[in-house]
């Protein structure tokens, strides 16, 4: 149908079957057959035939506007392909919320650079609502946020679910991990993530729900710094499960304690972007590569 729409647009623009046929380098009968095929597929006449004159019907006008839109998208697509093929390096700008910048983004960047050696990646950080605005305003190509996003202008792909876990220095464990309960967080010395992120909101909501009053010693906006300080300060923390790597735990002499109530602090890390039709082919490819890194939303 795409080719027939192109031919139809030329008929409209030249106001003549003969002229359009000459431009297309085909016979007028052949062009008439292609037009008839298009009208048959759509199910209505696109022209009113008044003698030798052709006048667009209302559906014909709508079809012409659609054909122009397809032509513009095709032209933009071919330009993007040409740029992708002829440019030695490709560029991707990722917007990442503060928590995903520290948990998910490093793995994504590593995978993209391994699969695409000529890619240059720029990362911009911000709060979730800021990343959503950056994507919507074309300031970044894609966004990684630690929540679902409902926005009619954006596509949101869930990558994986995450929840909080209790992390404690091994030298302060006074009971087997399976003996810990949510009530043990009450008056527990803790280092927490800084206010203003959804992880801190999640933590505060948890404390309020179970009427907990931990002994908050510090508030820091770096997961790595928190982990390094736990052993020295003999304090615990609540961090996203996705950040906890075995080597991090070993290097800092830490243990992860799973508490049932913490599994309810679930959030979904999502990949957000504009409609695929508006993205250049390279970004479309990278979006697919990122999504493929995660087997399912429960990864």
Describe the structure.
- With 299 residues, the chain is α/β, with parallel strands linked by helices.
- It has three domains: 85 residues, Winged helix-like DNA-binding domain superfamily/Winged helix DNA-binding domain (Arc Repressor Mutant, subunit A, Orthogonal Bundle); 98 residues, D-Maltodextrin-Binding Protein, domain 2, CATH 3.40.190.10; 101 residues, D-Maltodextrin-Binding Protein, domain 2.
- The protein has eleven helices and twelve strands.
- The strands form four sheets. It has a five-stranded mixed β-sheet with strand order 4-3-5-12-6, sandwiched between helices. Strands 10-7-11 form a three-stranded antiparallel β-sheet. A two-stranded antiparallel sheet has the order 1-2.
- Strand 8, helix 8 and strand 9 form a beta-alpha-beta unit.
- It is elongated, with a radius of gyration of 29 Å.
- The chain starts with a helix and ends in a 7-residue tail after the last helix.
- 25% of the residues are buried.
Question: Could you write a compact summary of the structure shown?
Answer:
Keywords: DNA-binding, Transcription, Transcription regulation. The chain has about 300 residues and is an alpha/beta fold. The chain has eleven helices and twelve strands.
CA radius of gyration is: 29 Å
The name of the CATH topology of the largest domain is D-Maltodextrin-Binding Protein, domain 2
In the CATH scheme, the class of the largest domain would be: Alpha Beta
β-strand percent reads 15-25%
Summed over residues and divided by their number, the pLDDT gives a mean of 87
């Amino acid at each position: 149908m795409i080719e027939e729409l192109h031919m139809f647009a030329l008929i409209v623009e030249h106001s003549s079957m003969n002229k359009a046929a000459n431009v297309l380098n085909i016979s007028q009968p052949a062009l008439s057959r292609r037009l008839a095929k298009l009208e048959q597929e759509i199910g209505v006449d696109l022209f009113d035939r008044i003698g030798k004159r052709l006048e667009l019907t209302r559906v014909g006008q709508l079809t012409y506007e659609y054909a122009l839109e397809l032509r513009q998208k095709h032209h933009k697509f071919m330009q993007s392909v040409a740029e992708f093929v002829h440019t030695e390096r490709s560029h991707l700008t990722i917007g990442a919320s503060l928590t995903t910048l520290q948990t998910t983004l490093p793995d994504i960047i590593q995978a993209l650079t391994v699969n695409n050696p000529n890619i240059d990646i720029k990362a911009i950080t911000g709060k979730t609502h800021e990343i959503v605005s950056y994507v919507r305003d074309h300031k970044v190509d894609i966004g990684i946020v630690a929540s679902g996003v409902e926005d009619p202008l954006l596509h949101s792909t869930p990558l994986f679910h995450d929840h909080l876990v209790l992390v404690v220095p091994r030298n302060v464990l006074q009971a087997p991990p399976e003996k810990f309960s949510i009530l043990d967080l009450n008056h527990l010395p803790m280092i927490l993530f800084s206010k203003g992120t959804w992880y801190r909101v999640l933590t505060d909501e948890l404390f309020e729900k179970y009427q907990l009053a931990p002994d908050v010693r510090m508030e820091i906006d770096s997961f790595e710094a928190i982990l390094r300080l736990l052993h020295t300060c003999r304090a615990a923390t609540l961090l996203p499960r996705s950040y906890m790597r075995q080597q991090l735990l070993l290097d800092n002499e830490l243990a992860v304690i799973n508490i049932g109530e913490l599994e309810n602090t679930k959030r979904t890390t999502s990949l957000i972007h504009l409609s695929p039709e508006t993205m250049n082919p390279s970004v479309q490819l990278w979006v697919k590569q990122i999504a493929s890194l995660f087997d399912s939303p429960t990864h």
